[in-house]
Amino acid sequence: MIEEYFREKIQKVDAFLYEQIKQKDAPDELTESMLYSVEAGGKRLRPILLLATMEAFGQNAERGLPIACAVEMIHTYSLIHDDLPAMDDDDLRRGKPTNHKVFGEAMAVLAGDALLTLSFELVAGIEDRHVSSQMKSDLVARLARSAGAEGMVGGQSADLRAEGRTLSPEELENIHLHKTGKLLSFPVEAGALLAGAAPGQIDLLNQFSRHLGLAFQIRDDILDVEGDTRRMGKSAGSDENKQKSTYPQLLTMEGAKQKLAYHLCEAKQCLHQLDINYRRLDEIADYIVQRNR
Ligand code: GRG
């Protein structure tokens, strides 16, 4: 069952994240602030995608834990900064008061910065005889590109500038391919690279994760309208309040649901062309489009 699979992986990811943060010789309050958001209970989709990709190639997923956790640290930093008054100004995240509500804005900025930088330290410090120095620096560069100006941060800045304006569906897709998509694609690609996948396989997996990222975002937009604040652990209705363009708003709710089904179908078609054990990736794709939080 996928729930059991998630539980097992989350336990490993959580233990690794805690250990990496706790062992830093950092001021107590900074450590507390980093751990507060990391331990607040995210779904751990990005690390699980990496671990499941490695397993699809018959690899031991434990080898992927450092990079899986590096991606989760970047994701958590992005949520801490996204919630700040200068960005989305949110009070609730992962079912708890946002980081700046508890530790103050300055400490929240620093906790995000520390998680971002620790993620690169983790990847650069991988000790694995199958991972050469060249591969490590390649992975660091790919992670930086996914998270930075050409990736998530670039998407976030385009999203900020788009507030209050009605976007075309193409403009909206482009924002989400960067803001959300790049950091969801990276773990699939990194897992495949660690597993020694062939270029053709990586190409198909990249197409799979591109569709999956769009499906993830459409589901997120739908949940923002239909979801329940308590179950999601973040405020429902926030897109409308911030005058953000969303899929239900541009395509109608029915149109958004059709587009969600389309991207799931395309993602699966890419996956099913691969001669690997893709069962868990397939189940994760289903989970992403059906999730309630
Ligand atoms: C550099 C100042 C500065 C800020 C960066 C890049 C950025 C701020 C924010 C991006 C935030 C972001 C990635 C939002 C959209 C993605 C999204 C829907 C996140 C929620 O992801 P889930 O559902 O969350 O995987 P959990 O809590 O389960 O991990």
| Strands side by side in the biggest sheet | 1-2
Q: Low-confidence stretches at least 5 residues in length (pLDDT < 50)?
A: none
Provide the helix percentage. Answer: over 70%
The structure class reads mainly alpha
Distance between the termini: 19 Å
The helix count comes to 14
Radius of gyration: 18 Å
The SSE string, one letter per element, is HHHHEEHHHHHHHHHH
Largest pleated sheet: 2 strands, antiparallel
In total, how many beta strands?
2
Bound molecule types: geranylgeranyl diphosphate
In round numbers, the mean pLDDT is 96
Task: Give a structural overview.
By secondary structure, the chain is mainly alpha-helical. Helices cover 73% and strands 1% of the residues. It has 14 helices and two strands; from the N terminus they run H-H-H-H-E-E-H-H-H-H-H-H-H-H-H-H. Strands 1-2 form a two-stranded antiparallel ribbon. Strand 1 and strand 2 (96-97) form a beta hairpin. Helix 3 packs antiparallel against helix 4 (65-82). The protein is globular. The chain starts with a helix and ends with a helix. The mean pLDDT is 96. The structure holds geranylgeranyl diphosphate.
List the helices and strands and how they pair.
Blueprint lengths: L1 H21 L5 H11 L6 H12 L8 H18 L9 E2 L2 E2 L1 H5 L1 H20 L8 H15 L4 H11 L6 H26 L4 H28 L2 H4 L5 H4 L5 H26 L6 H12 L3
Antiparallel strand pairs: 1-2
The chain binds geranylgeranyl diphosphate.
Geranylgeranyl diphosphate binds next to α4, α8 and α9.
